[in-house]
Each structure stands twice: as C-alpha cells, then as structure tokens.
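Attaching the record inline, Q. Sequence:
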Amino acid sequence: MTTLTGSQWESERKPPVAATGAAAWLRANLFSSPLNIALTVLSLWFLYLVVPPLFEWAVVDAAWRGTRIEDCPDREAACWVFVGARWSTFIYGSYPAAERWRIDLVFALGALGIALMMLPRGPAKGPVGIVMLTLYPALTFGLLLGGWFGLRHVPTTEWGGLMLTLVVAVWAIATSIPLGLLLALGRRSPRPVIRWFCVAFIEFWRGVPLINVLFLAIVMFPLFVPAGLDFDKLLRALVAFSIFNAAYMAEVFRGGLQAVPPGQYEAARALGLSYARMMAFVILPQALRIALPALVNTCIGIFKETTLILIIGLFDFLAVIQAGMADPAWIAGEHVRTSGYVFAALGFWIFCYGMSRYSRYLERRL
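Structure, as predicted:
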C-alpha cells in the first residue's frame, strides 16, 4: 500500500484546475459546443456593433452641463441637460416645492422597509412585510394628501412624476395580492355560489382591456352615482387598477395552489387541521413558493401599466417627460426627445430589474 504525505494528500483532494475558475466557466457556458461557440461569436459581434456607438452617443459626445437647449449643440448626441434642468419635475410632478419633503419622507420610509425585508436575518421580517402591505400605503396617502396635523392639503391633481408612478404601482400591488389570493381560494371553494362568483369575476375582468376599465372608472362611473356625489379621479383609477390586477393575481395563486401535491391536503386533513389552519400552515406556504416567479412577473407588469393613467389626465413619470418635450424651450431638438425616452426607459428598467433580482434572491432562500 502506498502512503501519501500531507502535501500529496492535499493535492489529491483539490479539484482539477480545468474544472474551476473563469476558464472553466467560459468553457461550460460559452464554448461547450459548436453551436455555443457560434452564438458566442455572433453575440460578441453584435455587442461590438452596438456598444461603442451607444457609449459615444450617451457619454463621450453627450451634453452634461447647462440649462437650455442651446447647451446641446450636437444633435447626434444625448442631451442630458434636458434631464438635469427638469429633474425635480420628473420626480415630483407639480407637487408644491415647499411640501416636497413629504415625498422624500415617503421614499425614505419605503427604502427602509425594503432594506429591512431584504436582510438575510433581519429582525421581525414578517411584521415588517405586513406593515409595508397595510400601514405604509395608508401612511403614504396621509402624508401626500395632507389636510391633517397642520399639513397643507395637496390635491391629487398636483401629483405627478415618479412619485405618482410609485403611488399607483405600490397601491395596485398591495391591494391586488390579498384580493387575488381570496379570489383564488374562492374559485377552489366547495360551495357553488362562492366558486361561481369568483369564476365570473376573474373571467370578466381578465377579458376586458385595462384601458377600458380606466375609461369606465373615469367616464362611466359618475353616471351611476347620485348627482353632486363625486370621487377623486386618482382614487377611481386606483380602484380600477386593484380590481383589474386582482383577477390576474388570482390566476397566479390558483396555479400555485394546483401545483401543491394532493398528498399535502390529505396529510393536513389526517392531522385534523381545520380548513383555515390547513391553508395557513401547510398549503399556502408551498403555493406561494411555487407561484413566486409568476407573482413577481405580474408585479412588474403592474409597474409598467401605470403609464396608462396618462389617458385619464394624470401625469406619471413617462407623461411628465413627454410634457417636458412639448415645452417650447425644448421642442426644437430630436436629440432631446430621444434622451428623454432613454431616461424614462432606464428608470423603468431599474425598478423592474430590481424586483426581478429580489425575486431570484427569495427563490434561492426558499
């Protein structure tokens, strides 16, 4: 029998050099087969054609300093001067400048709540999540609307920009998730009346375009209420978003519930658990894990759908950028419009990609 020394034993335990490191990753992911090699070469060629001109347009030749259209003389390059000059409008809309600290406070509280929920072993993550889904939306409306504790009342007609986009998105997500879960449970209910009602509700709202729903909420709703009774336009839009997206959330949760093996239901009943306890402690935790990717995908779709509120006269993030392009002081340049749309796309991408990465993080932890 051959006896190995300490150094020889360590060398025997180490994996082959070719199986680790950057070279192994490149070989496994980019050059593992002739097809992968061809796709890698085509991708590098495409990046070579796109990235250098884009970098030159957006960074090298772009105009960064100034306050007027004259400060962007190169019409073949980005005009970030437009974004810098109208930055506050893009973020706050027409909200009074003296009261914008309330928006900053709402942003800070939201960022704090998200940070606490993202901590791997943060204290009381469950209660923080419940607060973010229940109390935080109510506190947001109280701070932004004002009219109490000495806060100046700011009507929703003066709301706009990124702030309005986040308000609509957070409200729609926070309300459609619990409503969708209730509808999904109701659709699987053994009681025919509850099941038929949920099925009819889900199928009706899934079959109607969101634009029609918004028009119904803004144009048709006042025809069905007593004369002199009116509701805020933004409030009606938020209710429309909640109802519409709840139907889609219901299908997401129904898919998760159906993916749970039947043996889990039988085991829970064998333990003598009631329906509520079975759902709360056995079925829903598994269904939510399964439905998480589709759930986040629906939330991303909701965030992008907020741009539709422009058609009912509310100026969200994209709408205020378009309004800035229509300003006579900036209307004379195609490069201004291109820069504005690129900035809007970048803003939406940051939020949507952030939600996507957080969902991947949750999938790994669960």
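The mean pLDDT is 86. The chain has three domains: 16-49, 61-93+324-366, 154-314.

More tomorrow.
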